[in-house]
Amino acid sequence: MTDSATRRATYTVIGVLILAVMLFPVYWMVNASLQPSGNTLTAGFLPLDPSFAGYRRALSEQGGNLVTSLIIATGTVVLSLAIAAPCAYALSQFRSRWVSIGLLAILISQMIPGIVIANALYTAYERIGLLNSIPGLIVANLSSAVPFAILILRSFMLSLPPSLVEAARVDGAGLFRAFVAIVLPISRNSLITAGLFSFLFSWSDFLFALTLTTKGGVRPVTLGIYQYLGTQVQNWNAVMATAVLSAIPAVVLLIAAQKYIAAGAVGGAVK
């Protein structure tokens, strides 16, 4: 075996070992979810006698929380793209010193700790009645989803040739129609990338859910798992089953959109 082949084999083994270490918690979560009732922390390495009792209990007790999280995440994606897409296009086309100031403000907004935003929103929500509501959690998640989506979309839209929009304008299309008919279809990869990350931000949110919900009427699945632990510490299969179910949408979306993510992430790097 040549030195080059040996080096590749060594790198492959190292990569597999690192991947195995990183994925082991995921495997153990699935393994524990298939164990019989009781304390599954001392379960065997393989689920030789799998039981789906944990999944049945998780669906019956946490199914509503999963639906709540799905509604919040979907609303966050739709609104974040509706806000971020025209903002990103404007920031990519305008030539003004105010654009740099606007981008700086967007970056600074990403640096603000989430607990600061959550506390400020709690005070405001208490006055306008948005506590314990799905719209309130959607608006809260937009505070992190919109700035990130603007940065992703703008980096791609900077590479769009102005002649495309100019040709549409010559044919009689207005600014809005040119944006919808020309810019958005071309920006599909970056839109999918921004939308996916907005979904993941919202789906995995715990801080806003914990701060802005004081009753059990609206409870995302992340908060459901957290409150589950207090009563199910001797029944970990249901807890782990809930965690597996909550991970499925994110895994499916990442697998389905991986090629769009790769294209959207580097789409603005080459003009």
What would you note in describing this structure?
Pfam families: BPD_transp_1. Its main location: membrane. InterPro entries: BP-dep_ABC_trans_perm (IPR050901), MetI-like (IPR000515), MetI-like_sf (IPR035906). The structure is a single chain. The model has no long low-confidence stretch (mean pLDDT 84). With 271 residues, the chain is mostly helical. Helix content is 76%, strand content 0%. The longest helix is centred in the N-terminal third of the chain and has 41 residues, at 53-93. It is globular. It is built from 12 helices and no strands. The chain has helices spanning 3-33, 53-93, 97-111, 114-128, 134-157, 162-170, 175-186, 188-203, 207-212, 221-228, 236-256, 258-266.
Summarize this entry quickly.
Keywords: Cell membrane, Membrane, Transmembrane, Transmembrane helix, Transport. It is a multi-pass membrane protein. The chain has helices at residues 3-33, 53-93, 97-111, 114-128, 134-157, 162-170, 175-186, 188-203, 207-212, 221-228, 236-256, 258-266.
Descriptive tags:
BP-dep_ABC_trans_perm; transmembrane; MetI-like_sf; mainly alpha; globular; 271 residues; transmembrane helix
